[in-house]
Amino acid sequence: MNSLEKDVKNFMEGKYNMSDFNSYQRSAAKTAVYDDAYKVIYPTMGLVGEAGEVANKVKKVLRDKDGVFTAEDRDAIAKEIGDVLWYCAALATDLELTLGYIASQNELKLSKRKANGTIGGSGDDR
Ligand SMILES: [Mg+2]
User: Fold this and answer.
1) How far is Cα 52 from Cα 82, in angstroms, rounded to an integer?
2) Ligand 1 centroid to 97 CA: how many Å?
3) What is the CATH number of domain 35-116?
4) Under DSSP, is residue 73 helix (H, G, I), strand (E, B) or coil?
5) N or C terminus: which one in the chain shows less Cβ crowding within 10 Å?
6) What is the C-alpha to C-alpha distance for residues 34 and 21, in angstroms, rounded to an integer?
């Protein structure tokens, strides 16, 4: 079992911790080199750009490979998701938020929606 398979297995077994997000965020902050004058806006623009890179890679698999993802496709998309994650971490840092808090709040929101049968539909406060 390789490291990815082990990590996916742990994830599926519920062996993860929201504090892992904060560890990642602290690490990511060490590689944030943009000027303080561009706080918030720089990671926001980067996040949108990297999300577009994810979408473009997925689009090309749909267009060229009938939606069948190869290991190379998955690796390439994983790198772009990593870029998205880095910009999420940087944005959270600039807004004095933690990824652990954000993840916990999101998990709580979605759990309530599932319990209420409102996963589908629209509106932030359903
Ligand atoms: Mg990228």
Assistant:
1) 13
2) 23
3) 1.10.287.1080
4) helix
5) N
6) 22
Distance (Å, rounded) from C-alpha 84 to C-alpha 43?
9
Protein residues placing their CB within 5 Å of the ion ligand 1: 50, 53, 80, 83
Cα of 43 to ligand 1 centre, how many Å? Answer: 13
Rounded CA Rg of the chain: 17
Ligand 1 centroid–CA 125 distance in Å is 32
Q: Where are the domains of the chain?
A: 35-116
